[in-house]
Specification:
265 residues; mainly alpha; globular; 80% helix
Length: 265
């Protein structure tokens, strides 16, 4: 009886999660200009319309560029932070650790509202850099935690042995620690990219006519003139997310197999 209840519960949760995806997928092939589920006639014209309209394509490319830049910036900041918080004895370590994780706790609405006057003050408003910086702040805790966990699993004896054999600090980091971090760097980068390209709340506060993202256009269209183009944009975001999930799984399996082969040798 208990197993049956658990199975029904899991199946219900799975249906709740998958049903919106199925509805969005069907609406994208609707022949109507409204968000209606097609019954008999199906068409792919909205996919052609999406890539034909300059506003949607430019926003999509802009979102990709922002996601790539924010992920790169997040990795540049996250790697030294994770190493310093794991290996170095620095004052107020717990306070710094908690500060890095604040974007996971503070609602994005508050972050966006607080960042808006700051970017106006430093003349970055209306550029892609304000959104890139904020996206980097949002994904930094995820990147930091993944890398920190990996560094904690690397024995400090490896660094001591390398330095004992004459390697300097930079050589040890570059030739010993960095190669061991490749799986964590890849996984954290993919996670950061997927979160960045799907982030909406902060972009709504910061994006303007010159730096619209696919999320902000989707939101504005949903309020003003909802068409199946919104479903097409949602499907594209979903495809990117699924590709990222698959890449994370593939990366984990690849590096796990390499480690097993190394251990056998």
């Amino acid at each position: 009886m208990k197993k049956t209840f658990v199975r029904i519960l899991l199946l219900s949760i799975l249906v709740i999660l998958i049903l919106p995806i199925i509805i969005s997928l069907s609406i994208a092939f609707s022949p109507d200009s409204f968000l209606t589920i097609p019954t008999s006639n199906w068409t792919s014209k909205w996919f052609y319309e999406f890539f034909y309209q300059t506003r949607w394509t430019e926003a999509f490319l802009r979102s990709l560029i922002m996601a790539i830049l924010s992920t790169f910036l997040g990795l540049i900041l996250g790697m030294p932070l994770a190493y310093a918080m794991t290996r170095l004895n620095i004052p107020l370590k717990e306070l710094i650790h908690g500060s890095i994780l604040l974007p996971l706790i503070i609602p994005p609405v508050i972050i966006g509202m607080g960042a808006l006057p700051v970017f106006y003050g430093i003349r970055l408003n209306g550029t892609i850099f304000e959104i890139v910086i904020m996206l980097s702040c949002l994904i930094l805790p995820i990147i930091y935690l993944i890398l920190k966990n990996k560094i904690q699993n690397i024995s400090p004896e490896l660094e001591n042995v390398a330095m004992g054999l004459g390697a300097g600090n930079l050589e040890t980091l570059w030739f010993i620690i960095l190669p061991l971090l490749y799986p964590a760097i890849a996984i954290s980068g993919i996670c950061g990219f997927a979160i960045s390209i799907n982030e909406t709340m902060v972009s709504l506060f910061l994006a303007g006519p010159t730096n619209e993202t696919i999320s902000t256009i989707t939101w504005s269209q949903l309020k003003e003139a909802p068409t199946p183009l919104i479903a097409v944009a949602s499907i594209i975001n979903l495809i990117i997310f699924l590709i990222g999930t698959t890449a994370i799984k593939f990366t984990s399996i690849t590096f796990s197999n390499k480690n097993n082969q190394t251990n056998r040798i």
